[in-house]
Amino acid sequence: MFLQTAIRPVARRALLPSSSSSAKTLTRTFTALRSPVLRQTLTPVRHHQKFPLKTQFATGKRFFTTDPAIVARPTRQQSIQKLLYAGGIFGGSLLAINLLFNNESREDSIPLYERAYLQETFTYTGLGVGMMGLAAKGLHNMGWSYKLMSMNPWVVLGGGLVTAVGTLVATRATDPDNYIQKHLLWSAFNLSNAAVLAPLFFYSPAILARAGLYTVGVIGSIAFVGATAKEDKYLYLGGPLLAGVAVVALSSLGPMVLPLGSRALVASEAISLYGGLAVFGGLTLYDVQKIMHNARLADKGLIKKDTVNESISLELDFINIFIRIVQILGQQQQNRR
Questions:
Q1: Could you list the residue range(s) of the whole structural domain that residue 123 is in?
Q2: Structural domain includes residue 6
Q3: Exposure winner among 137, 147, 271, 329, fewest CB in 10 A?
Q4: What is the rounded average pLDDT of the residues 279-290?
Q5: Number of H helices, E strands in the chain
Q6: Any idea where this protein resides (predicted)?
């Protein structure tokens, strides 16, 4: 999974006079859309012995400030309108998806063991997403996002894949009876993803909140369709969706290999953004039906109950849908300026 961020730190440089007429201080300030702000002060040092005309810069100390961000708070009427608007989107998407994909719902009600299995899986999914969000915010506050953005993108991509895929495979391979090791590896998987997601906090809190609300609506509506549809109705989508994931993953590498401003780059970004939304929405539908299928197998004693493994798939669906909604909202905000 390759994370692209549309907003990067803005570098400001200013020369400030010091007490000495011959010495000046160069201040470089990295700012995001909100605090904390990372400031790095570089002080010029003149070497008069060997190089009287050459100026070198010695790196000073880095420090953080927690100045409150200036946010224009909406009125109560605007907040109510936005809440009703979000509720309408959720209800409309739920109705539309239900009419399009759930015209053949199951005749009987969901059995208790399937319902309990699904609820426990979604509980782990919520805990995992919450762990990622809190860890990503903490890393961003400590300046990790600035370091990550300054690294070589291939190093970030390779390191992120190794840690995320490694912890994912280790978690899935661990027996569910080994409770402590299973949950430690699952936590490591969430933290490794949080390290890559930390730069998302360069976006404004309003965009992140709206994207989170929309993602919950999309995941919830699709999960409702998958849970109420006929048994194993959408399990055949596994193969085509896997091919779609491969196409989306390759298109995400476009900005790293294609020239800026080219039509091929625009097309690859569109495939990664909007095609990714469609693919991971379909994967959510497939994963919910697979979870209920595994619940029936676990109830018959054919496989072991492992809701941690089931939750990982839904976490990945949530992350990828959330990232793309954030990018879409960020582009809309930039176009309004």
A1: 116-336
A2: no
A3: 147
A4: 92
A5: 11, 4
A6: Membrane
Spatial distance between the Cα atoms of 271 and 75, rounded to a whole number of angstroms: 38
d(CA 307, CA 122): 9
Q: Residue 47's pLDDT is what?
A: 43
The answer to whether residue 1 scores a pLDDT higher than 70 is: no
Helix (H) or strand (E) holding 59: strand 55-65
35 within domain boundaries? no
d(Cα 212, Cα 294) in Å, to the nearest integer? 28
Q: For residue 108, is it within any domain?
A: no
Helix axes 179-197, 307-336, angle to 10 degrees: 10
Nearest to 167 by CA among 185, 191, 179, 182: 185
Q: Is the dihedral of CA 292, 293, 296, 298 positive or negative?
A: negative
pLDDT at 169: 94
| Structural domains in the chain (count) | 1
Asked if residue 182 is part of any domain, the answer here is: yes
Instruction: Over range 300-328, report the average pLDDT.
Output: 93
Average pLDDT over the chain, rounded to an integer: 76
CA distances from 136 to 109, 145, 190, 317 (A): 39, 9, 10, 18
Instruction: Compute the C-alpha angle 187/122/238, nearest 5°.
Output: 95
